[in-house]
Amino acid sequence: MLAAPSLPNFQRAYGQALEHLITTPQFTNRPRGNHSQESLGLSFTLTDPRARSLFLESRPVNPIYHFAEALWYLGGRDDLAMIGYYARRRRLDSSDGVTIVGSAYGKRLFPAPFDQALALLRSERDSKRAFLPVFWPGALDDPASPDVPCLIGLQLLAREGRLHMVAYMRANDANRGLIADVFSFTFIQEFAARLLGLELGTYTHHVGSMHVAVAELLHLADVAAEAGHSVGQPARFAPESMPAGSGWEQVRQLLVHEEVLRTNQMQYAPADIAALDLSPYWQEIVRLFEVQRQLIHCAADPVDADLLTALTPAHRWQVTRRWAKRMPAEVTA
């Protein structure tokens, strides 16, 4: 039996996935008219699931969306209003303009299945049964559905004091869905480990169909090359750990702050966020949501320089590259 390749961080896995799909794909096809290159049955394991973010000049990512999606899942939500605010393209996933069915994974994971899995692991630490299913028998009933779940399910495995996760994917776009999925699922894994009082273990990602769009191949070749050049180099930023004691109270508070900022009911100065009854780790997410509020509701103005300075160096690096035209002249990464 062959194990999935073990890699130290997601950036390495992402680069290798792109390189493989660009140079040695198994198939070229057009499912639902989407011209893509594809390989079947790809897997990788991350030895440090906290190293879940990309730091590539050629592929600026959206860290605000990543935290928002993880929170959307943890909140057990399926509303388009929240997730569509952070990514307009998610509107294409809704049949009624109000809810998302297929990729609203949190609606099927939380609270009951997740709580049951953790209860099982508390009573039987070596259990193999802590599986959280997402794909359901009726998921293919509507051939015209714009949103069939890509996630089959997540498995939690407590072994020798560490919590491991295995994700089973029906399909993954290596340049879009893969980035967001690994971020959210490893965030959920780390959250579960904190609730169980366990150290963080490995994260394994299995994909039935991994693919990239043919129209993006030239750009993705540059991205893969940059990712390849970073191999063997020191990490640009060290990943941060979710603090001990993190739990549902922090999630509930974060959902409240997220809503008032998303709906522009309030604006937070850096001092306001620093005064919140949250640890710096969770305050940082609120800072990112305030950045998003300014990007959306103050579209004619640059993002506040003091707010950007208050961000961690890693998130400031990502934000200043993703929204370079909205950055004040005095702020540099």
From TrEMBL:
The first-level EC class reads transferase
Q: Does the keyword Methyltransferase apply?
A: yes
- According to UniProt, the name of this protein is Thymidylate synthase
Instruction: Note the Pfam families from the entry.
Output: Thymidylat_synt
A Gene Ontology biological process annotation?
methylation
Q: Give the matching InterPro entries.
A: Thymidate_synth/dCMP_Mease (IPR045097), Thymidate_synth/dCMP_Mease_dom (IPR023451), Thymidate_synth/dCMP_Mease_sf (IPR036926)
Q: Does the keyword Repressor feature in the UniProt annotation?
A: no
An example Gene Ontology molecular-function term = thymidylate synthase activity
Q: Which UniProt keywords apply?
A: Methyltransferase, Transferase
Q: Where is the signal peptide?
A: none
Domain Thymidylate synthase/dCMP hydroxymethylase, residue spans: 115-212
Q: What is its EC number?
A: 2.1.1.45
Task: Cite a GO CC annotation.
Answer: cytosol
